[in-house]
Amino acid sequence: MNRPEDIWIIIVALGVGSFGLRFAFLGIIGDRTIPEWLMRHLRYTAVAILPGLIAPLVLWPSATGGAMDPVRLVAAGTTLALSLMTGRIVISIFGGAIVLALMLQFA
Questions:
Q1: Distance between CA 37 and CA 45 in Å, rounded?
Q2: What is the pLDDT of residue 10?
Q3: What angle do CA 45, 90, 106 make, to 5 degrees?
Q4: 28 and 62: one domain?
Q5: Three-state secondary structure string covering 24-37
Q6: Are residues 39 and 24 in the same domain?
Q7: How close are the terminal C-alpha atoms of the chain, in Å?
Q8: C-alpha 102: how far from its chain's center?
Q9: CA distance 52 to 46
Q10: Distance CA 55, CA 66 (A)
């Protein structure tokens, strides 16, 4: 079923798609000013993508076979609280990682 050329077809297709997306912004409209309304929407891209990447890892971690884990929920809550209190991403990340490590060690 899995032929060796299938992976190369997928790699080439993803490469062409990635190039197309980058060319659309850099090649076609690279020398023009991006409208303010588009810049406002682009600022929220990371804010929209990061929770989408992290939420499944917190709510249904593969380490627990997909079962919700209170240790990871507390670490995620700590990270969120530190982020809201300090506004500094590095402190939030390290604080959440320390809480996760300590809770995994002693739980």
A1: 13
A2: 93
A3: 115
A4: no
A5: HHHHHCCCCCCCHH
A6: no
A7: 44
A8: 24
A9: 10
A10: 12
